[in-house]
Amino acid sequence: MNQYILYCRAGFERDCAAEIQFKAAEVGLYGFCRTQENQAYVEFELTQETGTELFSVLKLDDLIFTRQWFKVIEKLEGLAETDRISPIIKSLIGYQFSDIRMEYPETNQGKEIAGFAKKFTVPLRQALKKQTILTDNTPQNLHLFMFSSTHLILGMSLQNNASDLLLGIRRLKFPADGPSRSTLKLEEAFHQFIPKKEWETRLSSGLNAVDLGAAPGGWTYQLVKKGMMVSAIDNGPMADSLMETGQVKHFKEDGFKYQPKKQNVHWLVCDMVEKPSRVARLMTKWVENNWCKEAIFNLKLPMKQRFQNVQQVLEETQISLYEAGVRYELKAKHLYHDREEITCLLRRLD
Ligand SMILES: C[S@@+](CC[C@H](N)C(=O)[O-])C[C@H]1O[C@@H](n2cnc3c(N)ncnc32)[C@H](O)[C@@H]1O
User: Fold this and answer.
1) 3-168 CATH
2) CA of 233, closest atom in ligand 1
3) CB 343 within 8 A of CB 310
4) Which tens digits make up the pLDDT trace of 255-267?
5) If DSSP codes are grouped into helix, strand and coil, which group holds residue 208?
6) Which helix (H) or strand (E) is 243 found in, with range?
7) Segments of the chain assigned to CATH 3.40.50.150
8) For a pocket test of ligand 1, which of 234, 278, 339 has the largest count of ligand atoms closer than 8 A to its C-beta?
9) Does the active-site annotation cover 300?
10) Is the pLDDT of residue 67 over 80?
11) Residue 304: which pLDDT band, with cuts at 50, 70 and 90?
12) pLDDT value of residue 109
């Protein structure tokens, strides 16, 4: 069985499916997807038995619409309520895992199983330990993807190519003094794109930042909290609490025309509601001109074929950077706090 389950935000199944088919085909793996709208996951099945694992040729980090994935081991239905554990053990003989992920589709129906999942963890863990299916020092995690207490899919993921978060979701607490809920998008983007060991240099106090489309200031808030000096560009008003910090200068200008006065900007962030291609071109211009070292930006996706649109925009960006001779890192992810949009990082590597 060469099947994979990919988790995504409910409503984005088609994008998740289009992306995995496209990216797997690029590395010579062909397959098809089964999915239903709003079920919050996609089933991807490879059509040829090549022996190549999807995990060995694709990185979860390189997929935009997939939050988490696992390879299917067995689908179990009609489990007896008196003994769910024996059939699970039977299916897992010969496998070894270092941890268990009790998961379910990120839908209202799926969440109803969360209570059962929690209770079931302890006896399952004990039974798996006894059989040495659960042991230390193995790079694999076991997934129980549950639809009900009697119906689930067993699967495995590789720790170095999977999310270490439950359901691949980073839950963040909205700060009481945050000017808008959007603030969580930038906070999540920092976690997603910047390794913790690089925070000290790339998110350090004293760096200069520009926030295009800044009002009321949720993204500026994150930069200010890191101790940065921020030029906030927007015709709309910025939160007084941010202006009072002394770290923010507000310019009522068009974000598409604004240019930095000095070459001392590290971060450009942009949350303007505009066509993705227009925003991406603006970000590319900043990076190519060395007006900033790195940029985090949102691409709003109100259209139907989101993956195809994004793919085209990112390809255009890559071509432009290549032609300009700029070495770069480009990443894109549909974050948990994103809705009809994705978040990208573009960074100069010189
Ligand atoms: C989604 S909101 C930004 C929210 C902000 N990131 C936050 O966390 O509070 C988009 C903002 O972009 C601004 N905007 C749209 N087009 C703009 C432009 N051409 N120049 C400057 N600001 C623009 C709007 O005024 C609006 O305040």
Assistant:
1) 3.30.70.2810
2) 21
3) no
4) 999 999 999 999 9
5) strand
6) helix 240-243
7) 183-348
8) 234
9) yes
10) yes
11) confident
12) 85
